[in-house]
Amino acid sequence: MTDQLNALSILFTEFYYWVTVVIMFLIHVGFCLYEVGVSREKNKLNTLMKNSMLVPVITFGFFLVGWWLYFAMQNGPGITGGLKSAPWSEPWNELMGPHLGGTSSEATVEARETAATWSRLNGVFWAAFLLFSWTAGSILSGAVIERIRSGAFWLLALLVGCVTWVIVAAWGWSDSGWMVQLLGFHDAYASGVIHGLAGGSALAILIHLGPRLGRFRPDGTPRVFPAHNTWMIIIGMFLIYTGFWGFYAACNVPILDLDPAEGSSFYSATTIYLTPTTLSGITVNFLMALTGGLLVGYMVSGGDPFWTFQGGLGGIITASAGNDLYHPMQAFLVAIAGVWCGYKLHYWVERRFKIDDAVGAVAIHGYCGTIGVIVSGFILWGYPSSAQVGCTPITPWGQLAGAIIMFFVLGFVPCYIAAWGLKRAGLLRIPREVELAGLDHEILALELEQRQELLDAEETLKSPGVSRE
Amino acid sequence: MQPTIESWQTNPLEIGPIYPWVSLEVWMVIVATLFFVYFMAWKLAGESRKYNQQADISPQQSEANRHKEEIHG
To answer: Would you state the torsion angle of the CA atoms of residues A300, A304, A309, A311, taken in this order, to the nearest 10 degrees?
Structure first.
């Protein structure tokens, strides 16, 4: 980093991603609050620990394999080429630790350049992707509360957070991914890459897991389990919204010289496909999508707070695929369409197939994300999908194929097989006795015992002949 | 054991990794992975043991719960 402009760009990029990671941390805090708020009193601590512990579990898995998969799998492998070499992403590579970019005097020019760039950016890029992985895991977590075993959930979260979503990102969320090259796939802020995939994964797990006891009446109509703390849900949801700013920022490259001509420069923020965009533009689109989602969520649910806030999130998720290019009104209208469809689909699937999605995760992430990818294919039809010369343009069929790959091929199928295996091994669901008593029943019993002891002591003191001194 | 950095008064362009035990990374990854695999196995086995115990320990309670469920759905 001897050239001053180059050094400034790299140091700015390093700091930029570091800030996005800190903001994105709020998404996980929000998911925790939200999930615990939705759960019943008898399950709240178990719900908290199940979700919180996905942080260390996914982090270790992502360090071990996830980061390497993102680079290695971009060609398929076997579709546009073989496994890609990315030594900086291997868990034992020097560049995974604190490194100042220096190399030995025998190193090649390529090795020197790799070390100079990745020594500053590897850790912050890794962390930004890791936070996306936590989000993918958290999406599953909410859907399966109050009856899944934590160990089984963590295995499934490892599969989604460290393998399947990363492979999809390698294929469709990188300018050299095969889906971008061959299908013209474009999903700027991960409508399908994270949300569609995680929603499909959650649906597959829910099929094997089954509904919570008593969730459906004998005639098949669903019962509503009241949330134990509404404020936790609302604060959690606002934290998720806040964290989403970091999510959007982390999907961008903050500064890049896009001018192909020698001797002149044009600096801009870009998407992950290295196509130019502006933080200003995506900020307006983010807020307009949130607005559309909140309005239609409120309307379609008759003012229900749960679905109104979920609608806001669903609006952002639906518009995300094309929010780098949409006009704000397009973001607004796409959000409305996505949330309306997601809400209707949620209740249709619930009644038709008796799927108990405790937080509406499949609807808000899975359906809205998938719809967003498909709709963007029509609105952005003909746009270049990436910055590469001669790249395949965005088309409705390319986006449809991408949506199917994300929701079904790498979302639904792997989790369906994994959840089936866990169910066969008797490791997926808690016993009915424990479910009825509650996952926190031991703690609740202790609390009751202590309360009873206090009442007994009070009674003893009130009885005649007992002095208070 | 020799520290990776013995003095900062050198040309910074020649400084690479600054953490200790450079060249033992593969071994550290193996040890950490073994611990992680142990943690997951411990959790899965412990959870099975705990739930089986809780479900079997009180057959009367179990019966009562089933009865309760039949009433309340």
So the answer is: -10
- For residue range A144-162, what is the model confidence (pLDDT) as tens digits? 999 999 999 999 999 999 9
- Is B33 in the A-facing interface, judged by CB distances under 8 Å? yes
**Tokens 């719960």 identify what position?**
B65
* Sequential DSSP letters for A335-399: HHHHHHHHHHHHHHHHHHH----TT-HIIIIIIHHHHHHHHHHHHTTTSBSSSSTTPPBP-HHHH
Which amino acid would we find at residue B39? F
Phi, psi (5° rounding) for residue A211?
-75, 165
Q: Compare CB distances from B68 to A99, A434, A436 and report the shortest one's residue.
A: A436
For residues A360-365, average pLDDT: 97
Contacts of B54 in chain A (CB under 8 A): 431, 433-434, 437
SS3 assignment, position A216: strand
Listed residue (A139, A127, A189) closest to A164, CA to CA = A139
- As a whole number of Å, the end-to-end CA separation of chain A is 77
Question: In a 3-state reduction of DSSP, which class is residue A197?
Answer: helix
Q: A332, exposed or middle or buried, with CB in 10 Å at 0-12, 13-18, 19+?
A: buried
Q: Report pLDDT for B67.
A: 54
For A181, residues 6+ apart whose C-beta sits below 8 A from its C-beta are A80, A388, A391, A392
Rounded Cα distance between A306 and A39, Å, is 13
The helix/strand count (H/E) of chain B reads as 2, 0
Query: Are residues A100 and B12, on separate chains, in Cβ contact within 8 Å?
Result: yes
Nearest alpha-carbon partner for A130 in A175, A66, A174: A66
- Say if CB A70 and CB A170 are below 8 A apart: yes
**Spatial distance between the Cα atoms of B52 and A326, rounded to a whole number of angstroms:** 54
**Residue pLDDT, tens place only, A88-137:** 999 999 999 999 998 877 788 888 888 888 999 999 999 999 999 999 99
Q: CB distance from B59 to chain A under 8 Å?
A: no
* pLDDT of res. A2: 54
Position A190, amino acid = A
B12 touches chain A (CB under 8 A): yes
pTM score, whole prediction: 0.92
Among residues A200, A155, A207, the alpha carbon closest in space to that of A410 is found at: A200
pLDDT at position A358 over 90: yes
Q: What's the rounded mean pLDDT across residues A60-83? A: 97
All residues at 6 or more sequence positions from A268 whose CB lies less than 8 Å from its CB, including other chains: A255, A256, A258, A276, A277, A278
Q: What is the spatial distance between Cα A25 and Cα A29, in angstroms, rounded to a whole number?
A: 7
Contact B51 A427 (CB under 8 A): no
ipTM: 0.92
A271 has a pLDDT exceeding 70: yes
d(CA A65, CA A60): 9
